[in-house]
Amino acid sequence: MILRDKVAIVTGAGQGIGRGIALKLAEKGAHVVASDIHAQTARRTAREVEILGCRALAVKADVSCRSDVEQMVATTLTEFSKIDILVNNAGIARSATLLKLTDEAWDEVLDVNLKGIFYTTQAVATHMIDAQYGRIVNISSIYGRTGTIGDSNYVASKAGIVGFTKSAARELARHNINVNAVLPGIVDTPLLQGIPDKYLQPMIKEIPLRRVGTPEDIGNVAAFLVSDEASYITGATIEVTGGWRM
Ligand SMILES: NC(=O)c1ccc[n+]([C@@H]2O[C@H](COP(=O)([O-])OP(=O)(O)OC[C@H]3O[C@@H](n4cnc5c(N)ncnc54)[C@H](O)[C@@H]3O)[C@@H](O)[C@H]2O)c1
Fold this sequence. Notes:
Rossmann fold, binds nicotinamide-adenine-dinucleotide
C-alpha cells in the first residue's frame, strides 16, 4: 500500500488506460478522483475504486475547458482537502494524412491532448506548491518520439507533452513536485479496438515482447512514478512498449 491516503486525480479515467491507472493507484492505497468527459464511465470507475477499499469521486470534466478543470480541482479540494497526484491521461486521435487534415481536427486534438495538460497542471500546481509536494505523470505516446503516418496532429500533441513535461519538471522541482511522462506503445483499449486486424497483426509481430500492452502495464509504471521509490526521478520519459520502436 505504497500510496496509502494519497489523493490522485486521473483524467480520462472512464475507460482504457485511465481506468487501468485509477484502479492500480487504488490498489496501492490512493483515493481517486476519476475524471472524464463522460460522467457515466467516470462513475463506473469510481465505484470500482471503492470496491478496492479506497475513497473515490467521479467528476465530469472536459480537460480542454479551463472552467471544467478549475471546477474539478475545486471539487477535489472540497472533498479531500489536498491533491498529491495528477495523472494526465485523457487523450484523443482524429486521424488523417497531412494533406487531408482539417483545422478542426488539428485544434481538437491539440486542445484535448496538450492544452488540457497545461490547464490541469496549472490548476493543480498552485496547491502542490503550497503543500511542497506533488507527483504528476503525463501520458504521451511512443509516436511522440518516432512519428507515424496519418496522425500528425496526434504526434505533435504527444511530442509537445514531452517538452511540456521537461519544462514543468524544471520549474516545479524546487517545490518537491516531480513531473514525468510515460510513452506507451500499443495498448489494448477501446482506442485500439478501432484498428482493423489486418493492420494490427503486423504491428504485433514487430513488438519484441510479442504482445500488446495492457492498461495494467501502464498503471504499474504510473504507480511507481508517483511513489516515494521514484522520488529521484523527474523530467523522465519512460517508454512502455514491449520494446516496440525502441
Ligand atoms: N491505447 C494505446 O495504444 C495508446 C498508446 C499510446 C498512448 N495512448 C494514450 O493513452 C491515453 C489513453 O488512451 P486510451 O487508449 O485509454 O483511450 P480511450 O479512448 O480508450 O480512453 C480515453 C478516455 O479519455 C476520455 N476523454 C476523451 N476526451 C476527453 C476530454 N476532452 N476530457 C476528459 N476526458 C476525455 C474518454 O471519454 C475516455 O474515457 C491517451 O492519451 C492516448 O493518447 C494510448
